[in-house]
Amino acid sequence: MRRGVLMVFVFLVSPVSLVYAQAIPVEVRVILASREPGGRQDPTIHSLVRELQRDFAYTNYRLLETHRGQVSPEQPWRTAIAGGRQLSVALMRAAGGRVEVRITTAGVNTLVGLQRGGRPILLGGPPHESGVLIIAISAH
Amino acid sequence: MMGHRRYRRALDAYVDGELSDAELTRVQAHLAGCGTCSRELQHLEELRGLLRQAHEESAAEAAPALWPGVRARIARGRPPRSFMAWIRGIWEASWERPRLSLAGALVTAFLVLSTGYWMWEAPVVTPPVHTVAVEPGEEGVDVQAIDPEEGVSAMVLTTSGEGLKVIWVVAQGQL
To answer: pTM here?
Structure first.
């Protein structure tokens, strides 16, 4: 019993526990925007598509992929997305409900601040098939 | 059938070669049988010959006197035309060639109208959504830095509805 309490105490105060405590779940949704005739629309991106349709001339938005991972100060998260592209998310800072992440993909390295559980940052423009990719990255 | 008096009047036109073929035939037929008109015709032709000779002699006498002045004017060159004379020349020429003038007016109108239309409808390069200055927000997303690779351009856009931030990348080659 004492040993168990001690292990819990050691875990809580160790750097490993701090790392796990700061591990931030991130979600990446890869959307193909094109001018092809519209097909069935994924309900999970309905609100996002409605927003994009206000300003972009694309007529069809199709969710290609969804990736989920965790980022921490020591451990960036990498994944392969459509077209064999690499996407990397590194946690730079986490304070309160906000995180600061460095995103590297499609020829761009950018530093953005995100609200956990808030709006995603969108990264668009890479050509793919008959349209372009719009990558939505959000923190949870 | 022409009367004798009318044939006398037609002789002037006959001498000047102004009669039609039918009139010429009739006058010649009359002259063949009318001595009075034949003499009148001979008198008229002699008179015309004298007048022509007098005119040529006077011109020949005048030419040596006029020629040095003409030569001097050629040597000096053409006198410069005033702007108003130039405009007047164009104006007169336009009346002499109405089709050419109309075509020129149409071409000028087309150029003026097309230039005006082009200036009015000149494409203005605007991004599809608003380019924004980045401002950090409690609920929103703030883009703090963008570092595109060589040959890649990136801009930050904000959608007009919920204000989503979009980093739009463009590259000359494959991304």
So the answer is: 0.52
Q: Which of A120, A107, A59 is nearest to B165 (CA)?
A: A120
Q: Using a CB–CB cutoff of 8 Å, tell me whether B169 touches chain A.
A: yes
- Interface confidence, given as ipTM, is 0.82
B165/A113 Cβ within 8 A: no
DSSP category for residue B17: T
Cβ atoms of A59 and A34 within 8 Å: the answer is yes
Give the list of residues 6+ apart from residue A114 with CB closer than 8 angstroms, or none: A98, A99, A100, A101, A120, A121, A137, A138, A139, B141
Q: Which domains does chain B have, with CATH numbers?
A: 2-58 (1.10.10), 81-121 (no CATH), 122-175 (no CATH)
Task: Report the pLDDT value the prediction gives residue A4, as an integer from 0 to 100.
Answer: 60
A82 and A133 in contact (C-beta within 8 Å)?
yes
Which chain B residue shows the shortest CA-CA distance from A139? B141
Q: Is A134 a residue whose pLDDT tops 70? A: yes
Phi-psi region of B163 (alpha: psi -120 to 50; beta: other; left: phi over 0): left
Give the per-residue pLDDT at A3.
60
